[in-house]
Amino acid sequence: MSAPWSALPSPIAEDVAECWESVFPDGVPAWLVEDEAVPESVVADAVGRSLFLRQTLERHADQVRQAVDSRLLSEPTTPEYLAKRWQEYLERVDGEPALHAALRRFRREIQFRVIWRDLLRWADLAETMAAASAFADTCIDGALDWLYEDSCEQLGTPYGLDPVTGEEAPQPLVVIGMGKLGGRELNVSSDIDLIFAFPGKGETRGGRRSLDNQQFFIRLGQRLIQALDQITADGFVFRVDMRLRPYGQSGALALSFAALETYYQDQGRDWERYAMVKSRVVAGDQKAGQVLMESLRPFVYRKYIDFSAFESLRSMKAMISREVRRKGLENNIKLGSGGIREIEFVVQAFQLIRGGRDRELQQRELLTILKELEALELLPSGVVSELREAYVFLRNLEHALQGIEDKQTQTLPEDDLNRARIALIMGFDSWTECQKVLDEHRERVATHFANIIATEEEEEDGESELAEEWQEIWLAEMDDESARDWLKEQGYENPEESCRELTELRDSRTVETLQTQGRKRLNQFMPVLLDALTDVENPSQTLSRVLQLVSAILRRTAYMVLLLENPGARTQLVRLCSESPWVAQQLAETPLLLDELLNAESLYTPPAKEELQDDLRQQMLRIPFEDLEEQMESLRHFKKAHILRVAASELKGTLPLMKVSDYLTWIAEVVLDHVVDVAFANLVSRHGYPRRSDGSACETDFAIIGYGKLGGIELGYTSDLDLVFVHKADPELSTDGDKPIDNAVFFTRLGQRIVHILSTQTPSGQLYEVDMRLRPSGNSGLLVTTLSAFEKYQRNDAWTWEHQALARARGVAGCTETLEAFEAIRHDILCQQRDRSKLREEVVEMREKMRSSLGTPESRRSEVFHIKHDPGGIVDIEFMVQYLMLAWCSDHPELTQWPDNIRQMEELGRAGVLPVEDTEKLRETFITLRSTIHRRALQNLNSQVEGDAFPEERDYIQSMWKKVMLD
């Protein structure tokens, strides 16, 4: 008698043979094969296809038996069955830990059933997606029902106006599902995107004390997330992502209907319209939820054919293309070229543009919308058919990839065993056949995606004819003398050096070992580059700089294609490298920044802070918080891309110094805000939320204080960040998770994680260098301090120079309440009454110490002037301002409102502390010196200039120093 696995392909059969006895030591149990649809050969097939099915049968056989007893595996998984089965699990729930355990055991059972039926192809795509989505609905609604009732017992019941009847009634929580959950198209192993909403304002009744409705629902939401997301001994239920809510991770966890409607009406972005297309009430009060969804419909669907959506769709499409290029996603069937996301984009683009007029398009399921697009003749039947077939194939393949290990992945396997499993699941005799059909589907999808909305660079006209001489020079078909003469005629200022550098590149080991395709692209690109360089004033010098980039992208020729096909990007490249070796160096270190050159308008128009927040939110949406490595890489790319825009704008002359520092500071603030969110979420997933003295869980209670250039809104391109971490939680209390730790330990670890994310060297470099020495007691002090301890230190133990530093400090990220509390402390400390004579002596003494340690030695001051540290330099101005602030804030408390030198000078003039003409001249001199440092940074130069530079400015500063600090 042949073995049950004998009909399986050889690598799978061998694998099953090896594990069979460990999975079934006493043979296949009778209860599993009682169903006629499940002979031993099918069991072997299932065990061969999925490690998850195998491990569940091996480790949790009793639970699988209960599942089979409740419904045969040959029967479909319906919403009615799921609801009934959950009630059976719920009967054993007597507390929150038991609820967590029940949800996770329920998941294991249903996941086994859904993956079994899907991988054996007993269920089609429609059944699998519907079952996975209904299971999520059941879990969310089931957990919410139990937790709502328990929260009402503990905190009282929230009351307010019923959105349906308009009468006062208990308030429900409404859970909105986004993405594939909203569209009832969930994967077999997926995270879920949720938004929490409640009808309106009010307070709880029946508790020990009344609580604002929003606080009630925030706490309920936190408990619901923990019930689903927290990893315990039984695993987890769903990874929960809340970042699609208004204001992202920094927004309130639950918002009222009115707040949601106001946000989308006043601030809603186009990408949020795109996301809301699939939104659906998945749990909570369905009637109240429908009232909310109707109020949001006008935001999603305009009443007319919305041609204004084209521009934002172009931007989204360009972002998709850049991400594919940046991350090398060729093996990712969701995000890669021709993948699932491109099909979704095509369909949702039509929904946004025409959904207001053609109400048939106001549905959620992609396959349903495809039918409507064909019926409305918006897409040809052939295109619809190809997209439909590709979508079904790709989604089935996605489920196959995920079902093998119950793992959220869309990446094709590289090992033979898993490739054989995928081929078997997909109905092919070999991986080669499967790959061939996959490639055909992806090629067709990529073509349709490219044709739907052409991006601006795709619409560029072809490039002009090139002179043959450029080709001959690059390929060494022209003799050296002729090559030098030609380059000289074309404006190259150092043709000998340019010829030498081209020869070195051409003869380099890397170029010699390029594959045929790479060599072909390089030979196309170099003549085009040499010709483009004739448009700048210093072609030879610029060539040297650009060749750093060429060397960096020799094996990543997609970037050469980008520059070949986009004359505009090529023009920006040579112009920026001509003007700044620092920019050239940035591009060489991070070639993916070339994407920023595609759109000249955005390149020279850096976004304001709100737009930066929006951009970062979009980029990070699909990266789980727990994927710290990818979070760190994306943050580094975000920072570099936006700093490149600032540098480009400064070089072009469209941004004055003050604005340059503003933008560089905003970039840092937006990054810090996100880093706090990532680090906090990471720790909460392990230990729960820090508790407050009233028993509630805090949102963060943590804040980052910026000192120095960050605090003074004066960041430069290479500035480090002077940071101090504070919190206002009770350090004696602990967190509320399954593995609680003291609040003090929690916040210390939070600070450590933030420093790690910011300062660790990754393949993309360091995000920011961090300096924590300005915290209380410096390097010997605690990394994170309570606000009360910070205030006590500032009042009783701080040195004068620490109060000077406080003058340039401000809250830059974290909890709003904590930031406000810090600002009150700063104001009080700066407004203390001081002995001005003693203060002046201490400030002058500190300045002399700095001069002697950081300034130019007196013997060399005729040769070199250090713009910052030498007499008559920037630090003299800063010390004068800080002295005047500390000396006069007690008389003029309004001086504390600003942390930056420029506005502090203006306020000192306004208050009459200094004559206005002096403050204005000091301001102009300060800007002149700082502008020079900025420009030199873009030339990779330090802050030291010739000894006779800035004579008037230095004389004036020294005269003011004598007047303010010495006389």
Description:
With 967 residues, this protein is an alpha/beta fold. Among the domains are: 1-123, Nucleotidyltransferase substrate binding subunit/domain fold, CATH 1.10.4050; 159-300, Beta Polymerase, domain 2 (2-Layer Sandwich); 309-459, Nucleotidyltransferases  domain 2 (Four Helix Bundle (Hemerythrin (Met), subunit A)), CATH 1.20.120; 462-568, Four Helix Bundle (Hemerythrin (Met), subunit A); 831-966, Nucleotidyltransferases  domain 2 (Four Helix Bundle (Hemerythrin (Met), subunit A), Up-down Bundle). It is 59% helix and 6% strand. It has 42 helices and 15 strands. The strands form 4 sheets. Strands 3, 4, 6, 7 and 8 form a 5-stranded mixed beta sheet that branches. Strands 9, 10, 11, 12 and 13 form a 5-stranded mixed beta sheet that branches. A 3-stranded antiparallel beta sheet has the order 2-1-5. α34 (743-759) links the parallel β10 (721-727) and β11. α11 packs parallel to α13 (286-300) and α38 packs antiparallel against α39. The longest helix is centred in the first third of the chain and has 31 residues, at 125-155. The N and C termini lie far apart (108 Å). Mean pLDDT is 91; it is low at 455-464.
